[in-house]
Amino acid sequence: MVGFVIATHGKLASGFLDAVKLIIGEQENIGEIGLFEGNDVSEFGLKLEKLIRKEDDGDGVIVFTDL
């Protein structure tokens, strides 16, 4: 199954994931991450890479972003 990652500024990713759960219910292989003021961009990139690897079960990952 293809994995999904939502990566946005602030809390937008969390809100999108909440909307997904409301419409189609709890899903597997989907994660979210937000970049907040004061976050280290390099550290955010490493966390994003880790999340993508976590959600990938071998079929790849689609990343939705506002960046």
Could you say how many structural domains there are in total? 1
Structural class by secondary-structure content: alpha/beta
Number of strands: 3
Instruction: Kindly estimate the percentage of residues that lie in beta strands according to DSSP.
Output: 25-35%
Gyration radius, in Å: 12 Å
Give the biggest sheet.
Answer: 3 strands, parallel
Question: Could you report the average pLDDT, rounded to the nearest whole number?
Answer: 96
| CATH fold name | Rossmann fold
Q: How large is the count of helical segments?
A: 2
CATH hierarchy: architecture? 3-Layer(aba) Sandwich
Main β-sheet, spatial strand arrangement: 2-1-3
Report the CATH C-level class: Alpha Beta
Estimate the global geometry from the Cα principal axes: flat
List the secondary-structure elements in sequence, H or E.
Answer: EHEHE
What share of the residues lie within helices?
40-55%
- How far apart are the termini? 25 Å
| The named CATH superfamily | Phosphotransferase system, mannose-type IIA component
Can you walk me through this structure?
By secondary structure, the protein is of the alpha/beta class. The chain has a single domain, classed as Rossmann fold. About 40% of the residues lie in helices and about 25% in strands. The protein has a three-stranded parallel sheet with strand order 2-1-3, with helices on both faces. Helix 1 links the parallel strand 1 and strand 2. The protein is flat, with a radius of gyration of 12 Å. The model has no long low-confidence stretch (mean pLDDT about 95).
